[in-house]
UniProtKB/TrEMBL annotation:
Residues 1-239 form the Deacetylase sirtuin-type domain. PROSITE patterns: SIRTUIN. One of its GO terms (molecular function) is histone deacetylase activity, NAD-dependent. The active site is at 111 (proton acceptor). This is protein acetyllysine N-acetyltransferase. The keyword Flavoprotein does not apply. The chain crosses the membrane at residues 175-195. Pfam families: SIR2. Zn(2+) binds at residues 119, 122, 144, 147. The keyword Cell inner membrane does not apply. It comes from Vineibacter terrae.
Length: 239
């Protein structure tokens, strides 16, 4: 299927990053089973909620900072390099696709990015080391250096609207795909999980590579329940 395709789209979920040592937040023992998620409206309204959010971020950040791209990430980067993959749509927030060599403008981050922060008012980017330095001083909350607005990690929180530009870019790439490869997504989080079937209905072949079955397996042209890195390394020819 890869050999026959020229407009491949990758769609990645937590399963590709667990192979780099990043735990799935939804799995047993994951952060969302230990903490009640902080709703976006609470983050905006309450300084206490913002402090708790930053406490959790810095308490769990070490694992993400140590993580490096695995064979699955590198295989997708190779397909991009070959000009066969037009986009990587990801539900992940770890930045590992960019670290593997996929250009920023070819990674569509539906749930944002946890490797930096941004102002909610003007969008100014702020590095986490700067926020950490402030927060370590009596848990001082960061304010935007440009406009004084609220700063949070550049992720999409519970209750926060999905990013319109990224959703539209994802739709356009999905509709143009001739092969759509799902890697490590349980396909239960909507609206993101609608893209594979959108591609299938538009004529693309659909491949799902995931450890566990998904509700969309019966619609796929090929389903593989195996490790992503091992599977994609063999398919693409990378280590």
């Amino acid at each position: 299927m890869i050999a026959d395709a020229t407009r491949i789209v990758g769609f990645t979920g937590a399963g590709i990053s667990t192979e780099s040592g990043i735990p799935d937040f939804r799995s047993p023992g994951g952060i969302w089973t230990r903490y009640r998620p902080i709703d976006f409206s609470d983050f905006i309204a309450s300084e206490d909620a913002r402090r708790e959010s930053w406490r959790r971020k810095f308490a769990t950040d070490a694992v993400m900072r140590r993580a490096t791209p695995n064979a699955g990430h590198r295989a997708l980067a190779r397909l991009v390099e070959q000009g066969r993959m037009t986009a990587v749509i990801t539900q992940n927030v770890d930045g590992l696709h960019q670290a593997s060599g996929v250009p920023d403008d070819m990674v569509i981050e539906l749930h944002g990015n946890a490797t930096y922060a941004a102002c909610l008012d003007c969008g100014e980017r702020h590095e986490l080391d700067w926020v950490r330095t402030l927060f370590e001083k009596d848990e001082m909350l960061p304010e935007c250096t440009q406009c004084g607005g609220i700063v949070k990690t550049a992720t999409i929180s519970f209750g926060q609207s999905m990013p319109e530009i990224e959703m539209e870019r994802a739709r356009e790439k999905t509709m143009a795909a001739d092969l759509f490869i799902v890697l490590g997504s349980s396909l239960v989080v909507y609206p993101a999980a609608a893209f594979p079937m959108m591609a299938k209905r538009n004529g693309a072949r659909l491949v799902i590579i995931n450890r566990d079955p998904t509700d969309q397996d019966d619609s796929a042209d090929l389903v593989i329940h195996d490790e992503i890195g091992r599977t994609m390394s063999r398919a693409v020819g990378v280590n």
